Amino acid sequence: MTGDNLIEQPETLLPAEPEVIEALRQTTSDELASVVAQHPKSSLAWAVLADAAHLEGRTLEAYAYARVGYHRGLDALRKAGWHGHGPVRWNHEPNRGVLRALYALRRAAGEIGEQDEFDRLTTFLNDADPTAISRIDQQTITPDGYRATDPAPPTEAFFIRGEN
């Protein structure tokens, strides 16, 4: 016996949050807390706030924000019919908020030396979607919407001005 659940679990599909996405698009990193205050149930909003704190080197705040996003995400998953296990795929865009909150909590847990929590969250993410960690690694998003994977502009877009 392998211990694996032989009954296939249905994929959990969270509802879209267009108002949260629009609010995040229209805000600066200094105003992220107001978006979270307007949408406190959104794991996406909490994950973005955690990412902003992380980028500013505020690890404990990032951990706290990610933890709230994680719990809000669990609430949303349960409301959508999730029973503690089963796929939560990155390909379904509304699932990305909870996956990003899990990732942010995992990252912060690792940074503060919580190896057991880091390992549990790694397992959780891999069970939810085996591609989630690598996809989020490739799509680190800053509060102003810049993606770390965005290519640099063509060289003709650079202007060098000087005395020469």
TrEMBL record:
The name under which this protein is listed is DUF3151 domain-containing protein
Look up the domain of life of the source: Bacteria
Question: What is the species listed in this Swiss-Prot or TrEMBL entry?
Answer: Cryobacterium cryoconiti
